[in-house]
User: Fold these one by one.
Assistant:
Number 1:
Amino acid sequence: MHKLWASTYKELLLLTRDLGGLAILFLMPLLLVITITTIQDGTFKTLIESKISILLVDKDKGKVSENIQKNLKGSERFEIILKSDEGEAKNLVQTGKYQLAIIIPENLSNDLNLKISENVEGILEKFGAKEENIPLVKSKLKPKEIKLYFDPATQFSFRNSIKSGIDQMVSKIETQTIYKAFQEELTDDPSEEIFDTEPFLTFTEIVPSEAEKEVIPNSTQHNIPAWTLFAIFFIILPLSINMVKEKNQGTLVRLRTNPVSYTTVLGGKTVIFLSVALIQFALMLLVGVYLFPLIGLPKLDVSGKLPLLFFVAFFAGLAAVGLGLLLGTIAKTQEQSAPFGATFVVILAALGGVWVPVFAMPKFMQVLSNISPMNWGLNAFYDVFLRNVALKELLPEIALLFLFFVATTVISIIYNERKNAV
Amino acid sequence: MIQITQLSKKYKGAEDYSVHNLDLAIQEKEVFGLLGPNGAGKTTLISMLSSLLKPTSGSFSIDGLTYHKNNAQLKQLIGIVPQEYALYPSLTAYENLHYFGSMYGLKGNSLKENIQQHLETLGLSQFTHKKIANFSGGMKRRINLIASILHKPKVLFLDEPTVGVDVQSKNVIIDYLKQLNTDGTTILYTSHHLNEAEHFCTRVAIIDLGKIVCKGKPAELIAQQKGAKNLEEIFLSQTGKALRDYA
């Protein structure tokens, strides 16, 4: 125990002697979480609050295009800039000056009305007919195409969201035109409302939660756990570098000749670097709770969750330390440990669902994500932050994190013993 | 005290043995010098005796103990002064010594006093709380030595303990080692300073290509070779004048 205490104290001294390194260790994760949350929250607000300028080329000049324009202008997302030339609009989008141009084809209103009228007449004729075999009315009109030009730099998700919005709007206009055509056929009084054209089916977003503790997730609630975990795992870098330095300085060689086990040496590092991870976590929470509201970001809600949050952070920290010990044991130079450690943490984060949710990944990657400790940690944090689960429900993820620490540490010890067996 | 039997070491991928079928017995309270050109096998032998390298074949025991059976006991019995400084540059002399002393189970005031006493004896007491990073080569060598003897080892291995230090530091180190030997410590040391070895060692062995080419008391070895005036002449006659560069 005395040797473990001495090793821990030595690690503390080594860490505190490098004040610049210590500051980076604590400040960079904070900077990371502030930057990411600000960007994500800003993007979210941009999409909702500020309007995206889009180009519209109206070759139709009819009721339908007027309706499309009205709907687009009515939308909170777009600001419409009218252009007369498709080529010019295309060029402006291609050069990245605008993200989107919508080209409404010629005769859209006329052809849509004609097509719908033909269909409606055909249907009504069929209903009124006495004989069974009445030939169906078939339109000779070709389907119309609304062209969308996207800036090649726009992201796939943005394109999908726009396409889906426009598709929804066009469907609505088409439905309204059908209703209108029926109305014109069935009554001579245009003021008479036969149909209720308002959507019958709507949807409401509900977050499943217990009545007394309803949770409304926001960007902070999502970002703090994800990026805190990312920062905690980044501890493998300073830890592995610390171990490689000991090899290069010759101090590890001296320790191997001393009557002290490698487990004790690793124990001292575990205590200190786990403490660093927990302090990092505490700082992240403080930033989320106190700093975020001051800079216009949503406040982090930790009410009643602190013990469970620290419980998860403790085991996530252990898993990260275990990985750092293994990397530090195997790596021979800082050139090996630093790039590998940094890249590996990014891979683990990607697999863990820090950037893209696991359910949105390809099947194979979903399977792989099950073996990422960051995935276990992130799930555990989401369980506490967003799903309000009890300790019992966290245990499977906690057990996995702990087993990961045990496995990596045992491998480190065995590797060291095999390599240095006498 | 140290009994080495048919000890060999061949590194992975190497064509030749670094130490080959080496037999050697070192008595208690001896100062035994292991001399040889670069790549002769001195450091390899000391590394095997220090539990840092696994022998390819053969065996050895120190005070009747082996690493297989008495690892912790044996490590407590010996002290190793490595060729590298093997100290934490960002820690002070005291912090380094306190840490390495603790690894031998030393603690409390006795460790504190032990450290102070050694620092005083080796002329470093005014630098107790200075960082190792700011020390000169000679000062680092002295701290390197203290870190290995705080637990009062019965056997001390030193791998070129005076390399790269000034004459003053070298004298202090050698005088202190003589004192340790007088107090009962058996010393096995390697060096390229043949003059130093001639005066410091009770016995020496010249090792080349992994084998002992001659051994005995320095004065006797010099007397045995016709016309030889010092150990350096014996050394050159046994190992030749060809350069021993290796990588």
Number 2:
Amino acid sequence: MAHRRRRKRKEIFAQGNEAVAQGALLAGCTFYAGYPITPSTEIMEIMAQRLPRTEDGVFLQMEDEIASMGAAIGASLTGRKAMTATSGPGFSLKQELIGYACMVEAPMVIVNVMRGGPSTGLPTSPAQGDVQMARWGTHGDHPIIVLSASTVPECLEMTVVAFNMAEKYRTPVILLIDEVTAHTREKISIPFEDELEVLSRMQPAVPPEWFKPYAEAARGVPAMAAIGQGYRCHVTGLTHDQMGYPTSRPDEVNEFMTRLFRKIDNYYHDVLIVDEYQLEDAEYAVVAYGCVARSAHHAVDQARARGHKVGLLTLKTLFPFARPAVEKLCMQCEHILVPEMNMGQISREVKRVNNGRTRIRTLNRVDGQIITPSEILKAIL
Amino acid sequence: MKELQHIERFEIRLSGTGGQGLITLGRVLGHSLALGHGYNVTQTQSYGPEARGGSSRADVVISSSAISFPKTENLDLLIALSQPACNAYYRFLKRGGVLLVDSELVQHAPTNQFIGLPFTKLAKDKIGNELTLNTIVLGAVTHLLSFAEPRIMRKSLEEILPPKIQALNIKAFNLGLREAKRHLGDAPMIWQTAAENGVEEEMEGFED
Amino acid sequence: MSDVTKLIHEYLRHNKKFPHVFCAGCGHGIVLGSLVRSVHALQLQKDNVVIVAGIGCSGRMAAYVDFNTVHTAHGRALTFATGIKMANPELNVICVMGDGDALSIGGNHLIHAARRNIGVTALVLNNQIYGMTGGQCSPATPQGDMSMTSPFGSLEQPFDTVELAKAAGANFVARSTSFHANQLDKLMQQAIVHPGFSVLEALSPCPTQYGRKNKFRNVVDMYNWLKKNTVKVEKQKEGDTRIPTGVFQNLDRPGLEERYVELRQSLQAEE
């Protein structure tokens, strides 16, 4: 493909938020509904500019965060790739309908740009306090995919991954970034459309009279008919049978719930994305995500320069938790450090996986400031 | 085109009051060094909830290789356009780093090793528009940074700014460049002096 | 085969496990019948009709009819409907809500749907109580009336759905009752075809929860009450305190989805 290499990608100097919007458009997002909130607003502003200029793009500013979720799910049911973006307080408000999207298996992407909390907290400062809420925020037992990004190019890349996973697994996907990543400007090159893999949901392969909207089609995932396509399905937040009608029969409920988990749990090799850096011979490992992974990267370089065998595991998929990668480190390293901008939300997962094998240390900062490389270096040495 | 000068890691902080256009300044500087010059650049910012007033700062990190940590820890260049900003950030300046201030707004620098120009006054008197303050600073910074090309900076200004205000800002940029040349001396000399001062301080510290 | 049987075969889901959840004497079935008759009279394609419902007794209506049906979360039906209509303006989107859905937990969505004039038909089934949860006070419960959560009589003034929708700027606002089935059919058809946001309130008795607590001895009493206490708005004279029915607002503003498509076309022409 020599001719491909000759094409020059467009380069821009842009913020993480802008990269998220670019990634969404490249992934085929044609519907955005949102409500303004710092520090995610730029995503909404760019979508307001761009979507009405596309062939069938829809942008809606809704009356509140809940309405934004509702509109996005509604659009998803008509076959659209839909997105909404928010920050802490808005993310709290969206939780009920995130559960609804899980229940009816509506693909969509929810971006949460984390700021200091709880409550109104620190609207313009970074934090990583919403990690466990992203996993367990909505009520009821449910599986979910939570992704993160630490650089501006990664914001674009992971937004595309988020849409692809949402479509492939028919699930809402949460992209957690932080204020630092969202507002850092960096050079990104915009990939051409044919350079990216873009996935779409499975469509029914049978006529309407044979179609069972919630029967497993492949990999635990049912095919999805769009409203208006002639299938006239019923969609409900009540626990439903294969036809989509409410049921409380224990066998049907159990079948539904286990499939909901199975469709994601059985595909860890596809869902779990991590970056390994200098880990081959590492005796000391740092496990980090988001903007803190950048500080950790810097610290690892500094420690290596001084002759210490330190490596870094960057989690790009936060949930389901990257058990295999972390377990390997627990066997290999004498120490694991988990720096994060909360009081220990991922370190809790690391400790769970570690199960007493090696020493896990935490480095926490909750003052609205990024953890610096020197703090991590000090903790390592 | 000149070959790119190799930079290990160079950290700049632009600090002052909200409304001085510091974040725009950081954006133009970053845009130009990243897309025009071809360096790796990260630009971050810190701001309060106010759109005007309050404190404001933008950080720019420049390197020939990939940048991991996007914020600054050891400043090579600190630009302080207000007294509180100067007081707050001076301690982040590394040995051999340069402090550039607005000589009218920063009356009490915490050191005698600094350089200054009356940016706000220049904007008012020479350009007739106080809002061009940040572009004058950009001109002066371009003079200070041996790896920055005035020609490319001007081009970046034209790429980013709306056409209506381009001519005025190019004028302001040239003024900043000229004033810096005239009053601050040659760029290599400034850094050499700073480095020597840094070394001396380090020696003193060593003796204790 | 009778006409009713034909309609049942055509529009009710025979793969859904009936019987329905409605109590004997409930007005919701009459409103559902009216909805089916109206869709039939208007000759709407079943594939293009979307019923978006909230939570509660009225919310269960969606499951019974053979359209595209979405049973959403409490109060959020209009937000889903807005997304669906904007994503595919070809669809006839009908939103079925109770008084709790439309006036209480989803009150914000009702006034904003009216303000932005989204091309959705909002059907508010007002039974003046939370029926499914066992008869608690709703924002439509008349002042002084009894419920499980107003055991000494409600102190609060109820919302008037029609006045609220009018003030918020809905394009079409009407009211009828499940006693006045013919009028309900007529208004339902008007509400469905009217462009922009239409609100149709249907007063629908709840004998089980509201009636028993408020001295209605039997179901017939409740329908008699509707008959006696409502009056066509055209015939209402000054000083008449009966509840007016009919059309209250009939504006001609284009729906949001139409205006959005126009915007998109004009932006594309620019390029």
